[in-house]
Please model this.
Amino acid sequence: MKEWNFDVVIIGGGVTGCAVARELSRYDLRTALVEREEDVCSGTSKANSAIVHAGHDAVPGSAKARFNVEGNRMMGQLSEDLDFEFDRNGSLILCFAEEDKPALQELYDKGVKNGVPELKIITGDEAREMEPNVSDQVVAALYAPTGGIVCPFGLTIALAENACDNGVEFIFHQQVRKIIKTENGYSLETTDGVIHAAYVVNAAGVYADELHNMVSERKLHIIPRKGDYCLLDKEAGNHVRHTIFQLPGKLGKGILVTPTIHGNLLTGPTAKDIEDKEATATTAEELAEIMEKGSVSVKNVPFRQVITSFSGLRAHEEGDDFIVGEAEDAPGFFDAAGIESPGLTSAPAIGVYLAEEVAKKAGAKKKADWNGKRKGFVRPEKMGREERAALIKEHPEYGTIICRCEGVSEGEIMDAVNRTLGAVSLDGIKRRVRQGMGRCQAGFCTPKTMEILARERGMKMEDICKNAPGSNMLTGHK
Model:
């Protein structure tokens, strides 16, 4: 049985856990992040709308409102420091009937109270002038210039790499099964070991309630809320330029239509409360709902160009707000629970807050040599001709294209495998450099990618998995 000792352990390698890890790496603390999967960004953080919300939807005074607006403000500088893609493309929230205008005004008023800058209510004609494909039925819209789009993989992996480079240890393939309060903090019983830590940060997504309830009498209840999405080919990527929302209802912000940071078009999500915390299969009924409701907002969405569909689970806590901070009756146990939308936007701000709270509790000082910068992946496809030629001359592997749909080279795949917290699975490569994310959905590039992964990792081909152990790509080997 393995045994580890740390000052702080973070449970969960999603965007919130990785944001906390990066911020804690500023301090002179022995910090670890434990994740049950083979990689970061393997749960809720990998399947969402990839939206940086402006902050007008959350109830004023709520944790969602606070961290949403703070996280939105941080995102631009963070993208520069950590070298991930981010575009403040702005958003439109559509109103389809005169009698619903008061609800739009209420959304505007909430945004102003929350501190969202530059909000403006515009007419339907002004909305169509900004977005020609917006429905003819739109009578007004709320324009939020500070809304944006990001790559959830890029953000999460950037946070994780920078945390690791600053000393945070990442422990994969370890599911926390039991937490016991001890004299010196907590003992976490994992898949095949025990982790001892003075402080715990619970960022376990849909399982955060189960872990919290092991140490606290104030019980939490997280309801998995499933949302399906349709991703369209890049040929459809310019159908809208802004993120298009409908006036929100009790289950969320409705079906959105948005460009992605990589040039595709995304529609979704549905919203269905379920019991199974692992149920991420899409259904024909839910995908049909996306197409029907998405077409209410935007005309002529080319759904025939859908290249894939997927589903994710939101960690909806029945109190309908984020639960962030130290548990009242469990000193040293800090929650980041119920982190649903706008969780992706809020994660950087939650990371700052929780790291400061833990450091204060621990009496930890900041490191003198902390480095908050990280260099992202080399992308020859985005270089000028001369720069690209010089790169290929020095590193010929960048001239060998493996994934033709996304223009991903052998050099990029090698980088994905060999850099800090490098990929150990095909999904890990895909999340880092987009191999297999194009029109053919890895139909042609998988064999060669497997060869590169096997070579760089010293693995056998039959041991290569799509993601977690057991998802082997090759079967029947004797």
Notes: The mean pLDDT is 96. The chain is about 30% helix and 25% strand. The longest helix spans residues 63-82.
